[in-house]
């Protein structure tokens, strides 16, 4: 039976997207030299945050969004054998739109 996970408050569950296996120049990157991908797909979102008056403010992201996040941010977890990252919405750097690729240093 598969487990279901629902993040709380302003947290999101992200599946890292695979990194390119080669450089633009054609050099193949071995597994030991690969960095953790900074891009991911949001699988689940929390309900949002409450302000001082108790009003619930929903998150700006939704399941299915492709996002960019800090390389070492979040908490890594395994759910049903698959690796995921739990992040706060404030740890997300932005939503990726379109089909290009992005790299950061």
Keyphrases for this structure?
105 residues, mainly beta, 10 Kd Chaperonin, Protein Cpn10, Chain O, six-stranded antiparallel β-sheet, two-stranded antiparallel ribbon, globular
CATH superfamily placement of one domain:
GroES chaperonin
Uncertain segments are none
Gyration radius, in Å: 16 Å
Largest beta sheet: what is the strand line-up?
A: 6-7-1-2-5-8
- CATH top level of one domain? Mainly Beta
- The third-level CATH topology of one domain is 10 Kd Chaperonin, Protein Cpn10, Chain O
Structural class by secondary-structure content: mainly beta
The major sheet is characterized as: 6 strands, antiparallel
State the helical fraction: under 10%
- Give the termini distance in whole angstroms: 40 Å
N-to-C order of helices and strands: EEEEEEEE
